[in-house]
Design goal:
Layout lengths: L4 H9 L15 H13 L3 E9 L2 E8 L1 E5 L2 E4 L6 E2 L4 H14 L24 H5 L22 H9 L15 H15 L3 H13 L20 E3 L3 E3 L15 E2 L1 H12 L6 H7 L17 E5 L2 E9 L4 E6 L5 E10 L4 H12 L16 H5 L3 E4 L7 E6 L2 E6 L5 E5 L4 E4 L4 E6 L4 E6 L2 E7 L2
Antiparallel strand pairs: 1-2, 1-12, 3-4, 5-8, 6-7, 9-10, 10-11, 11-12, 13-14, 13-20, 14-15, 15-16, 16-17, 17-18, 18-19, 19-20
Length: 451
């Protein structure tokens, strides 16, 4: 649900022009195991990682724990289920196109038929909702911790309806979780079933998966991985309250079953050829490389193009992509990732499959004294950004929390510099002036501590 696709695309684009020879080789499993082992040994990730060829799994690595409760730790297994975040949207889009194939919906039907109270409802189409061009509000990313608490369906709809649209329908593309929440409710209205029941009937029963389920409350399933972050130890995260994001980001799955799903979708087992063509209709020129289709995204890797989706909640990161030309697919699901990038994991898996070079990460730690950290603590404000940042500590780990967001740990690069690799954040402190510089996306933002 967190909009992390742009980071993935940007990094993979950087590999696009280096070579045209990306024939699959036998995977060097020892090196890829070493890659993941280094991440595990440095408390960077817990999760499950799969590579497949023509739907057949040829590499699978599961790391970390599904549950951590004080001294009790339950190791994750191949059966552990993870929240897949926005990959859920591909399932939602698939069911919408099934209803289109059955002549029960069409891409040009207006939102006003189902939710006339929404702004611009008489001009927003099903197509606009699918490709994020509706202009409607995002009830997840625009509302911070509000989404972590239970809300009724009426409250969720009201949250979307009362926000002025960002633009006219079809004018731009802006990621909208709210649009997919409406698509999920439309599925329920048209089928007369709950989203979870429709998912089971229309997808999971057809492809024979057992782990893919929707409509469950947080941490209610026996095999469900709980969400964590590492702050000197793996600590629990208060995640999005998943009934708030049915059809948007609530599905549980293993990566193995995501492989089954993406291969069923790309091979024509779930929607018609015409509908699948529309799902991967990426408008715009190749130069612009618009990544957004209707329920699918695309990413480049050398001369190849992969289609699929990724997902992020407050406690999970997931990825699911396939190359329809050569049959390669990958999926991974996590319940803990700290100071490491989803992009680097994706690239390592792709490079391993296509026998391209990649490095085993090296993590350098800087040991700081308690007084070194204490001098940096406080609330920082900026004239450059309307975003306050609170600097705290958890044990010997410095923590940062922006307004309306969850706190995240920082790695010490030096006594005065701290980074968060996952979010491309670097914080530089001036101890004497009690100031801080936030560096992100190549831009600098000046902060001063509140007195």
């Amino acid at each position: 649900m967190k909009n992390i696709n742009a980071f993935l695309i940007a990094l993979l684009l950087s590999t696009l022009f280096f070579s045209s020879n990306t024939q699959a080789q036998q995977i060097n499993t020892a090196k890829l195991d070493s890659f993941f082992n280094v991440l595990v040994n440095n408390n960077r990730v817990m999760g499950s990682f799969v590579i497949a060829k023509d739907g057949k799994i040829i590499y699978h690595k599961t790391t970390g724990y599904s549950q951590v409760e004080e001294d009790k730790k339950i190791p994750a297994t191949a059966e552990t289920q993870y929240r897949i975040g926005s990959i859920t949207k591909t399932f939602t889009a698939t069911m919408i196109f099934q209803l289109i194939d059955e002549k029960k919906l069409s891409l040009d039907i207006k939102l006003s038929k189902f939710f006339p109270e929404m702004p611009n409802a008489d001009r927003i189409t099903i197509a606009n909702l699918l490709n994020h061009s509706s202009g409607l509000a995002d009830h997840v990313n625009e509302n911070g911790e509000w989404i972590t608490n239970p809300h009724t369906k009426a409250e969720l709809l009201d949250k979307i309806a009362k926000v002025k649209p960002h633009f006219e329908p079809g004018a731009k593309i802006r990621y909208s979780n709210g649009g997919y929440l409406l698509l999920g409710y439309i599925i329920e209205k048209v089928t007369g079933k709950t989203y979870a029941a429709a998912l089971k009937q229309r997808i999971t029963n057809k492809i024979g998966t057992k782990s893919i389920i929707a409509g469950t409350i947080n941490n209610s399933q026996k095999l469900e991985a709980r969400p964590y972050k590492f702050t000197g130890q793996w600590t629990a995260v208060k995640d999005i309250y998943f009934p708030n994001v049915v059809a948007v980001g609530d599905i549980l799955s293993t990566p193995q079953d995501l492989i089954v799903f993406i291969n069923a979708l790309t091979s024509g087992k779930l929607v018609s050829a015409e509908s699948f063509k529309k799902m991967k209709s990426f408008e715009g020129s190749e130069k612009d490389f618009n990544p957004t289709g209707m329920g699918l995204f695309r990413i480049p890797f050398y001369e190849k193009t992969f289609i699929g989706h990724n997902g992020g909640t407050y406690g999970s990161i997931s990825n699911m992509y396939a190359n329809t030309d050569d049959g390669m697919s990958l999926a991974f699901t996590t319940n803990g990732m700290t100071n490491f990038s989803m992009n680097d994991i994706t690239l390592a898996m792709l490079n391993a499959y296509y026998d391209k070079p990649y490095k085993i990460p090296v993590f350098k730690t800087v040991d700081l004294k308690t007084e070194d950290l204490n001098a940096l603590l406080g609330n920082y404000t900026s004239k450059d950004l309307p975003l306050k940042i609170s600097i705290t500590k958890s044990g010997s780990t410095l923590m940062a929390q922006a307004t309306g967001q969850t706190p995240f740990p920082l790695d010490a690069v030096s006594k005065d510099e701290f980074k968060q690799e996952q979010y491309d954040v670097l914080l530089k402190f001036d101890r004497e002036k009690h100031e801080m510089t936030l560096i992100q996306g190549g831009k600098n933002f000046h902060y001063v501590i509140e007195k």
